Structure formats: C-alpha cells, structure tokens
Amino acid sequence: MRDLTKRMTRVGLGLGVGASALLVASAAYAVDDETAYIFNSLNFLMHGFLVMWMAAGFCMLESGLVRSKSAATISLKNIAIYGIAGIMFWLVGYKIMYPGTMGEDWNGYFNFGLIWSASDPEGDFSGGYSSGSDWFFQMVFCATAASIVSGTLAERIKIWPFMVFTTILTGIMYPITGSWEWGTGWLDTNFGFSDFAGSTLVHSVGGWAALAGAFVLGSRIGKYNPDGSVNPMPGSMLPLATLGTFILWLGWFGFNGGSQLAMGTGADVAAISNIYINTNLAAASGLVVAMIMSQILFKKVDLSIALNGAIGGLVSITAEPLAPTIPIALMVGAVGGVIVTIAVPILDKLRIDDVVGAIPAHLLCGIWGTIIVPFSNDSATYYGQAVGIGAIGAFTFVVSLVLWLILKFTVGIRASAEDEEMGLDKAELGIEAYPEFTRR
Amino acid sequence: MRDLTKRMTRVGLGLGVGASALLVASAAYAVDDETAYIFNSLNFLMHGFLVMWMAAGFCMLESGLVRSKSAATISLKNIAIYGIAGIMFWLVGYKIMYPGTMGEDWNGYFNFGLIWSASDPEGDFSGGYSSGSDWFFQMVFCATAASIVSGTLAERIKIWPFMVFTTILTGIMYPITGSWEWGTGWLDTNFGFSDFAGSTLVHSVGGWAALAGAFVLGSRIGKYNPDGSVNPMPGSMLPLATLGTFILWLGWFGFNGGSQLAMGTGADVAAISNIYINTNLAAASGLVVAMIMSQILFKKVDLSIALNGAIGGLVSITAEPLAPTIPIALMVGAVGGVIVTIAVPILDKLRIDDVVGAIPAHLLCGIWGTIIVPFSNDSATYYGQAVGIGAIGAFTFVVSLVLWLILKFTVGIRASAEDEEMGLDKAELGIEAYPEFTRR
Amino acid sequence: MRDLTKRMTRVGLGLGVGASALLVASAAYAVDDETAYIFNSLNFLMHGFLVMWMAAGFCMLESGLVRSKSAATISLKNIAIYGIAGIMFWLVGYKIMYPGTMGEDWNGYFNFGLIWSASDPEGDFSGGYSSGSDWFFQMVFCATAASIVSGTLAERIKIWPFMVFTTILTGIMYPITGSWEWGTGWLDTNFGFSDFAGSTLVHSVGGWAALAGAFVLGSRIGKYNPDGSVNPMPGSMLPLATLGTFILWLGWFGFNGGSQLAMGTGADVAAISNIYINTNLAAASGLVVAMIMSQILFKKVDLSIALNGAIGGLVSITAEPLAPTIPIALMVGAVGGVIVTIAVPILDKLRIDDVVGAIPAHLLCGIWGTIIVPFSNDSATYYGQAVGIGAIGAFTFVVSLVLWLILKFTVGIRASAEDEEMGLDKAELGIEAYPEFTRR
Predict the structure, then answer these.
(1) CATH assignment of the domain containing A72
(2) What is the pTM of this model?
(3) Which is nearest to A207 in space by CA: A370, A430, A405, A422?
(4) Which ipTM did the prediction report?
(5) If you count residue pairs, one on A and one on C, with CB atoms under 8 Å apart, how many are there?
C-alpha cells in the first residue's frame, strides 16, 4: 500500500532512525496539522518534479545510445510518452491504481474509474496532503515504465504502434498491477508484498513489456550474424548518454525519497535522508563494480556498462531504500552492477536485441532488488516477494505479448527493412537528428 | 498585481480546492507567522531556481534548432542574456516593475528607481516572505523574455547590438509593461487584467520584441526563394532541442507554481499542486495535438513541431494555470498545439524568418492563453484581457521597432552576407561549435 | 566550523537582514523544534541534490571542452569520481572531516575514524537536523574537488591511476584540510579562518591537486611549439560546455545557499535568499566582464572564456556569499572574470596545459574569493585568511605532488604517445564518443 497512513507506521524501520509508531503519533502534534500538510504536499511536488526530470534522463540516455539515424525518433518517443502517460493517468490510470487511497471498497484485483479530479475538503488538513500533489507524484511514476520500453525496442519499431502500446501500458496495465500492491490490492493484503518505490511495480513492469516487445519485434538488421557472433552497434553520442544517467541519478532521489510519502514529521525527513544516502551509495556501488568487472572481463572499462551499472544499482535499491544499513545498500547495488555486466552478453547469446541494455538494468535488477527486501525489512517475506514478482511479471509479460502480437498482425509494428536501413528519423519523421554531420 | 496579499484572496478559486478567503485568513493562524514566512520564501527560492534553469532550456532548444555554424553564438547569447538580465533587474528593473510591492505611491504608468536592496525589518515576519526571495523569483522571470528574442533572430544578428537590445528589454521595457499589471498599475487597477504567470507579460512581450526584430532584420540568406517557396534549414542537433524542451517543461513548474507567490497555507500548497497538474497536462495536450496534426497535415510527425506544441501548451496555460478544471486545461493546451502547427507555414508565407518557431509558441499562444482567462476565472473579463494584450503588445512592438531601427541605422544589426554564410561562430567568436565534425 | 550552532549566530551578518543572535534565539521558539528540524534537514536535502547535479555540470563542461577523441573517457571519469567520492566519504571522509560535528574531542590537525552511520536519537529534535541530511550535503561537496582535477588533466592521463588519485583526494586529503576549518580544527580555532562554502576548502583544493598533476603529467602532445607558441585545441562540442556551465550555475545555489546550514528560522531563509542573489550576480558579473575583456584583448568574444568567467565569479563569491552587499558581490565576481581572462595566456606561457581552464577558475578565483572575505565580513582577518590559503594550499599541493610522483614511478600516469594520438576513448575504453561522425 502506498499511502501516508500506512507509511507513517513503517517509518520506524530504517538506519537507526528508529522512530517508533508511537513517536510518530505524538510527533503529529508537535508539528501542527496544516504545517505537516504543507510539508507532505511539498514532498510530493519537489520529489515529483525530480521524477518528471527522469523522463529527460531516459531521453538523453537512449538518444546517446542509439545510432545517429534513430536519435530524433527516440527523442520524440520519449517526450511523447511522458505527455501521453500524464493524460492517461488522469483519464483512467489513477482511479484504477489507487482505489484504496480514494477510500473505495474494491475486490483487490481490478477497479475501474474514469477521470480523476482533486478532492480536498475545505480547510480540512486531516488528510495529510493535498490530493493534487499525490496525483502529480504518482503520475510521474507512471511515465517511467513506458520510457524503459522505448529504449529496448529502439531503431526498428514504428512510431504510432509504439504509441498505442504505451498508451495502454501507462493507462491500464501499469495501474492494474500497481493496484495489487500500492492500491491495497491482493498482493498487499494477502502476501505482504513490499516494493517501496517500484523495483517491480515500475521498473520490472517496463522490463517485461520491453522483453515481450523484443521477442515479437526481433533484432535490428545486421545485429546478429548467422554464426551467432554479434555486430556491435555503438551508441552515437556517449556524453549525452552520460548526461542521461546523471539525470536519472538525480531524479532517483525524488523517486525513492518521495516514496516515503510524507515529510511532515522529523522522523519522516530523517527517513528521507537515509533513503537519499542508500540510493546514492547503491548507485555508486553498482557503477564501481560494473567498471571493475568490465575491466576484468573485457580488459576495457566499458562506459555504457558503467552507466548501466549505476542504473542497475539504482533499480536494485528501489524496492527497499529505507530499511538497509549502508553496507547492505552497497551490497544490493553491487549485485546490480554484477547483473548488468554479465547479462548483456547473455541477452546477445539469446539474440534478444536490447538497444540500451534496459532489460538487465530494469527487469533483472528490479527482480533482484525486490527479492532481497526481506534481508533488511522483516515485515516482508521471501515467499511474498516471489509471489509478487511472479504475478506482476506473468501478467505484464503475457498481456504485453498479446498486445504486441495484435499490433503486429493488424497495423504492423516493424518498420520496413528499407526504412530501418535508412533510419527511422528519415523514414518516419522526414528529418535527421544531426543533418549536417557526415557519417562514416 | 503580483503580491502575496492579493494572491491569498484569490486562492479560493481553483479545482474544487475551494478554500475561501475566510479560510485562508483563519489558516494563517494555524501555521505560525515565521513558519509561513519560511514556506513562502522557500516557494520563491525553489521555484526560482527552476525558472533559472529555463535559461538553460532555451539555450539547448535554440542550440539544437540552429545550424551548426551558429550554435556557439546562440549558446553565448543565451547565457549572456541570463547574466545581463540579473544585473539590469537589480540596477533598475525591479524598482520600475514593483512599486506596489515596495509600498510606493505611483501613477500606474511609470515608476523609476535605481538599485534594489533587501529590506526585511528585523524579526518581523508579517511581510510574509523575505524580500530577497521575491526579488530572486522576479529576476529569473525577467531573463525569460529576452531568451525568446534570441531564438527568432538567430544566425544573422550581430552579437553586441543584440546585447544592447536585450539590456534595454530586460532592464526597462519588460519592467514597464510588467508594472502595469503585476506592479498594481493601470491595467490591474482599471481593467482587472489578469495574467497569472505571464502569458502576456513575459512570453508575448518576448514574442513582440522578436517580431519587430524579425521585420527589421530580414530573413536568413537563402531561406526564401523568389517564387515564395521555402528552403528548409533544419536544426543541427535535435536531441539537444528535445533536452531543451524537457528543461523548459520542468522549469515551468517553477514558473507557474511559484507564481502562486505563497506556500504558507494548506490552501496555497493545494493550489500549487493544481497548478502543477494543469501546467503538465496543458503541455501534454499541446504536444499530442501537434503530433497528430503534423501527421495529418504533413504526413509525418514533425519533431520540432511536437516540441513547439509542448511549449505552446505551456505558454497557453500560463495566464491562468490555477482556475481551470483539468478538461479546460487540456483544451487550452490543445489549442496551443494547433496554433504552433498552423502558424509556422503562415509565418513562412509572410517571409518572417523565425528560426526556432518562437513567435507562434510565445506570442500567439501567449495571446490565446490570456484572452481565454475569463472562461475559467470570472474575476477577469474578455474586454479587460483584450485591453491588456493590446496595450502591452502595442507598447512592446512599437518601442522594439524603434529601438531595432535605431540600432540598425547606427551600429548596424545584421552580420555581413559573408559572415552569415561562414557562420557567426567563426565570424564573431572566431571558433566553431563542433570544430572536428565534417560538415556536408 | 560548519555546523548549525555556529552558523545560527552568524546569520546576523548579511545584506541588511540584520537578524541579531538574540532574535534567532527567540525565533527558535516561534517555529517549533520539530518544524525547524524538518526545514533544516530539507535545506540539506534540496540543496544537496542541487550540488549533486554539479557533477553532471562538470561532466558536460569537460566533455564539451575536450577534443572528441577524449569525450567518452572524460564522461566516464566524471561519473566515476562522483560515485567513488560518495563511498570514500562514508568509509573515512566524514569522520576525518567533522569530528566537531560528531562531538569528538580532537587535536585540531588530524582525526581518524572509519565508517559513518546516522545517529539521530529517537524523537529528539534538539540536534536541529537529521544527521543523514548533513552527511548527504557534505558528501556531495566532497565530489566537487575531484571533478576539477579531471578537467585539467584530460586527454592524456590514464584512467586507473587517475581513479587512485581521486580516491585518496576525496577520501583523505580533502577531508583533512576540510577538518582544519569546517571540522573546528586549528584554522578555525586559532586563526578565525573563514570560508563560507569552500572557495579554498573545495575549489582551491581541487585546483592545487590539478596543478600538481599538470606539472608531473606534462602538456598534451603538440600543444606547445618549441618556439613557445601555442596550438589551440578547441573544444569539440561547445553547446555541451555551455550546458555544463548552466548546470554548475544552478547547482551553485545549492552549494552556497545550502551552506547556510539552516532554514529553520525566518532569518535563515532570508540569509539564503541573499546568498542566492549574491551568487547569481557574482556569476553574472564574472561572465559579463570576461566577455567584455575578451572582446577588448582578443577582438573576439571568446565563449569558453565567458563560461569560465561565470564559473570564476561563482568560485570567487563562494568564500563569503552572505555578508557582501550586492555591489560588493558584483565586484568580487568581476575580479573573478578578470582573473580567468588574463590567467589563461599566462598559464600557456608557463606551458601548464590546463585543458578546461580549471586552474584559473577554481584555484586563482578561490584564492581571490577567500582573501577578500574580510572586506565584507569583519569576523575574518586578512592575516587569518592568508594563513588558511597558504596552509591548505601547501598541504594539498605537496601531498598531491608526492602522490602523483609515486603513481608516475610505479604504475605510470601518462598514456603512451600512441594512445594519446589515437585518443583515450579508443585506447582505454575501446570505443568512441561519436563513432559515426567523420573527423576533420
């Protein structure tokens, strides 16, 4: 469940912050209700704009890692996704995802509702935060899942079918699985599934949808030779990819920190501080481990593996950024760094063409981060975590697969070979990302 | 008028937040004075740094949309503008613009003063916010107007005359028209003109100044053929332009959200939340509509039109981001998306060479956003809005035209044909933006 | 000393804010303890994420200013530095640097400790802020010093020896000199040395380490001709360098503003406002002065000098961004702009190859900003400032020199001439930053 009431009782966990539930209750009187309401809403707004900024991070990361003939298309997709996700989350997403927060009785599996609007009773601050600030924060999360998909499927998927998939993913699929846990659904109620900021609910969901898409879509022309060897297709502008990673790293303070869902008590802000630290150090550890491993395995420090190492560390800590001590956070991130380093060649062996390495970083590290939650947070169980990972994975993968297949056999999802060779920028947008520079 | 006192009584408007003026008055006692003072000042500082960041957004947008031979010059102009605007706003701008906030008696048309300095009575928090935080917030707005001009006139205007124009625009022209409304001047007092965050006061002002400059300066060599056809001059680095748009989008939460001018009550923070939502969804709607329209009209999704669609949506909602319900905000943004899509070919027909499409996005959408305010905010009238649009537009356009003509006939504003062909980077800066890449 | 207790008494200084120590004491009761605790922690978190963002700023600045064959390597170094600094600051740095804040008795010269962890007594908010928020804020400062080094030594230093140096710089050297002042050490206690946000403690430290490295490493092949003339090696992507400068400028509001160390009183937030203003105007003034001077001296506006002018202004104001009136802040920044303009040719005459101009901007402007503190803040003396500059400079330069020499004669620090010609990207990373673009 992802609302303030429950989170306030869990704030007692954490790095020796150790605020008990009792303390939090009494603290609520030290800071007056309206002041707490402002702080709690500010938490959503400030951390929300940081998460919004992650959309730019994905855009730069993906623009830098594709070939120059696809860089304008991937830019367009990334900004379009962010826009569409917002509209869909207003139209249906929020009401599907958060029946609990809206005080509705529901079956725990599926809830439908149309058109969200703010509902703050006049002058009553007992709700703890403005409903609009909460909507904004949840909305920016919604866009993240779709951003992951665009990276994996880059350079060969047609724009409009991709947009259709994105619309359904952000508007319906992501909110459904989200409701199972953050919306007080069956995973939350029956299995105590715990995913603080969305290693599974956001990142793995994006990863599963991307994986299904990669199966249906196939690899880029020329990526794999008949003998199984791989033709590297290096990213066209690596400083942009690095910038994208920095943006994601910055935005992740909002992603994880804001998921404390409250800043209206001293214990909350101390918890957010610890979340910032764990988030930062898991990223650092994933980065450093990926650098060292790529040096050992490939005799070169691989920049794109290093960047994915940082992202892998971030995804890994996202399921539980509050409870771990720092050494545990470093370990969680380090394993994330290992995962991205070894998974890339494995995916290539399976001929899954994941242009930016999103499946290792988001799907695999998302699973890792989620399954390890009970190691530091004993309110979760390995069994409950496995059920959540499995249920959300199965639902997202199967529904995505069906949807990709429907799109494939109706409008078609793959650009023609000719368009792909020419580059989607020219073929679909009629422009080039870098029209003046001569290409080798 | 743009000060806390008045805004607190208008907070009652909005998306069902419905805080009455009475509530706000009583709420002021729930949060103690000093706490409210901190929140209100923090609103200016946090949202102010987001608006400052928009200067980088304009810089990236314009750098990405000019040809590579002008990219260093436009970068220099953008950062220089931001610096100059700050100095001028300290030297004269603030005192011209905000006589009301400084408690001065004035005629409502023009007020002169030199050198602003902070004035916070010791230990007295009844003013509601630190005067420095307010100055900082208003200063970052000032820079925005000039950024718009640089985009339209790129690739052919000489650096130093442009700097002179910018200095006068930010130091004198923008503050004068700003004082008419936000400074409690005649438009505010006599016509109830309403422009929440500056669709007209900031964006249209920039657009009018740019339009006057475009007339005087003429189009780039080779842009228009004698037979009226247009030679496209595509942007040289579209991922940078996309990054710029993302930066602007992020910064706009500060631009519109911070313009609530207060965060010291629960009703204020709820209002800011609703402003974030409307701002985001108007941008999303402008973007999606521009994408769909460009697909229909031109059979291609045009990335630069899509980016301008988002910006057009943002500019459109800026005059009133609080009062509209979400469907109205979506409609306001959508019309912005339509405007940018259809205005670009019209400008080309008129042979107005607007390099980055700033006139449709900032001038036309600014007018649209301002005229539609009464549709959702009944404290404004269509008549009053039209008077404000007309008066500010006439003043800015005429004074700009005179100023550009004076500059033209004294120091000259247009680079020589030879310099323009070579590119301003080489001609004026003696460097190149991308010296190592071979150009086609 | 850099903790809340002392800073609260110094807040009385400043631009007419004039809160007396008495006022602050009484104000502490107006805002309740827990509310102040949240504000103070939020100050560290919000300003901390802005400082974190500066790492991306250095990365873009340096990526844009190196040649394209080294852009991926410099990107990697910058993100790696940020990660490593965080881990080292947890492992040893914080405990070396802040014995005072941790309430330890120490000798004022060196304190050792291993592994920091948060220590917030349950429900006790008298400490004023969460210890984790403080750690986070100090940690992001630590990364900055190393970022400066990478810029100077770019294009010729091997990756791993650089990483070793960085690890020791961030983990040990920076914390030691930092402890002398911010950790209540001998410079603070005996000499009243004053360095508000780190002109000397952060920027000059980075500059000294870079200078020592430049001596040991030597200049890039082909940079200096035997006859003393210089071959310009222009930056490969100037819009990225401009973006980097904008990011640094934005991040500096966090760097200086957050160094107020408190936001829990009205006087604190008024002080932060004034810090924002002085920081912004010193940067503006450095920028404008550098533009004008480069026009006069070189008959061209030099973009990279202009960018360094802004950075020089920022570094200059960092030692005392609160006490100066605005005219003094403008003067301090202007001198920074002069310094960067005239120092670049001097360094070239000395054949010190500083790829991005970091030594003028960070070392020289850091010295200037620190020595001029007593002009506006009479709690500091010119003598005390000189002692601090000299002691920290001597320590950092000598230890760096020894360390660079050890690295040179053991593992070697300089890439082979062949690797350097080919570019470190290909040689060390096995990739290229822009693999598709033809190079001239």
Answers:
(1) 1.10.3430.10
(2) 0.95
(3) A370
(4) 0.95
(5) 212
